[in-house]
Amino acid sequence: MARKKIALIGGGQIGGVLAQLAALRELGDVVLFDIVEGLPQGKCLDIAEASPIDGFDVELKGTNDYKDIAGADVVIVTAGLPRKPGMSRDDLIEVNSKIIASVGEGIKQYAPNSFVIVISNPLDAMVTLLQRITGFPYNRVIGQAGVLDSARFEAFIAWELGVSVKDVTAMTLGGHGDDMVPLVRYASVKGIPVLELLERKYKDKAKAKEVMEAMVKRTRGAGGEVVALLKTGSAFYSPASAAISMAESILKDQKRVLPTCCFLQGEYGVKGYYVGVPAVLGSNGVENILEFALDAEEQAMMDKSVAAVKSLVDSLK
Ligand code: TXD
């Protein structure tokens, strides 16, 4: 059986980590594309020269030519500018729309059967644009936001409770903006509600709620927290890990349930917009969108987040 092929469009900070992770996990051969000459070639050579040490058998090719992505099974898009301190994700819409439009043309022409995972910001608008340009079916074009936002929430919970990150489950829904919806009610440690564990830890319901709210707030601002520390760009290790888990679920038909930016056609009362919801990712891309009842407070937060996504997407030219 031929090896799978993963094309990465954008060879910057996230693109480089994506290439390394895809190689380390032997997901398939890797093509790293960028418009900057030498950058993807240099990164691929560097990673490939570690293969005897790490022991992975995949080919890595850096390129400035879309022809090289031909036959890709999965394409992950990080092309575009990242945030600088003081910027919101939405400030990137003009410049990144132009970039995503050209990337969409390249993918449409050279990898017409691929599954596409968009990472570039503002995420909800860029995935919408890329789907429009390629015309690919909705199950083949998705965005990465929720896996990372959820992982951040899970990490904060694990650190607060002094338990392994492996035993924490939590999820965020909605758009990839400050209005995202971290689901407090379903956050658990091996199925035990996090709120109950906090109440037992602090022996005080009000304090437990306060600690939970602080974690929710930190989750919403987690991208900005990293930007403020780095000063020159945004998070890149964790977004790459998040997208790789989505790609792996598709390539290996794992059918993992991952919070994914999916095109909704009535689910959660939303029609015609990309929004983050739990989805089953397998060899057909988005194979199912899982719906469940939100309580009044969660629904109100979801409505607010969806409204923000709509106004952003409607501003696309
Ligand atoms: O969770 C998420 N979705 C995100 C998204 C989390 C963090 C950052 N996220 C966004 O990803 C961020 O706001 C940016 O819009 C993208 C990429 O972030 P990265 O940190 O990798 O940015 P870099 O290092 O600037 O890399 C971008 C590369 C760079 O090498 C450019 O030369 C290249 O994109 N680029 C292009 N590649 C292909 N085609 C075109 N037209 C192009 N223009 C620039």
Automatic annotation (TrEMBL):
Reactions accelerated catalytically: (S)-malate + NAD(+) = oxaloacetate + NADH + H(+)
Annotated GO MF terms: L-malate dehydrogenase (NAD+) activity
E.C. code: 1.1.1.37
InterPro entries membership: L-lactate/malate_DH, Lactate/malate_DH_C, Lactate/malate_DH_N, Lactate_DH/Glyco_Ohase_4_C, Malate_DH_type3, NAD(P)-bd_dom_sf
Annotated keywords: NAD, Oxidoreductase, Tricarboxylic acid cycle
Annotated residues for binding of NAD(+): 10-15, 34, 96, 119-121
Domain Lactate/malate dehydrogenase N-terminal: 5-143
Enzyme active site: 176
Alphabetical list of CDD domains matching this protein: LDH-like_MDH
Domain Lactate/malate dehydrogenase C-terminal, first and last residues per copy: 148-313
NCBIfam families: MalateDH_bact, PRK06223.1
Record's function text: Catalyzes the reversible oxidation of malate to oxaloacetate.
Family according to the record: Belongs to the LDH/MDH superfamily. MDH type 3 family.
Listed name of the protein: Malate dehydrogenase
Gene name as annotated: mdh
